[in-house]
Amino acid sequence: MSSSRIQRWKCVCAYDGRYFSGWQSQPDGRAVQDVIERRLKGIFSRDVRIHSSGRTDAGVHAHGQVFHFDAEWKHGAAKLLAAFRGGLPPAIQVRSVRPAAATFHARFSARGKVYCYQLHPGGLADPFQGPFCWSIYQKLNVEAMRAAARRLTGRHDFRAFSAFNRVAAENTVRHLRRLEVTGRGARLRITAEADGYLYKMVRSLVGALVAVGRGKLTPGEVEAILRSAHRTHAIQTAPAQGLFLVRVIY
Is 0.90 surpassed by the pTM of this model? Predict the structure, then answer.
């Protein structure tokens, strides 16, 4: 096959994280990457490796995960999208397929990501929302959560909000451009936008804001934890099911 005919394809997909063991390929073959690569093998009759904007953990959902791959395809993007959709399970949807420059990389070309986390305070969410949010039985002090979010926004060392065991060797400085708490009553959303994230960083930020909302931490104490660069048991990692990768920014 002539390499001059190989095209790089940029794809955006959505998935329901309940049915997969995360994004990254796993020995059990149940990761989102495994499922998509099996479909590509069915389309191209050979193994095709995909590269994503980053991993999501088991149970985390996506509206706009981005991946790319290289392959020869003579029939245009619309037919490639149709071929994708014809063989994927209902819990994964490829939303768009388009040609990309050979220099494009789903991970290394990204300038940031937007995540959102859905909360249902004040009781148990109904069966149609429950799998996609964190139900919290008490009401939350939203204004205190917003005050804490303002203290976390900016360029900081977020080591205290990482779940890595051996984080010392990694650059843990990130620019958290936005951390907002929106909504009211039993429907709250926390939106984060950053140039990059540490392992379980968004879920740790949510855990900290919820602790503030419950009155277990003050905004000042959350800021002190941030400055300490030390992981503490006061920061709970929020459950995976409420987290969505919304968009990758290029």
Answer: yes
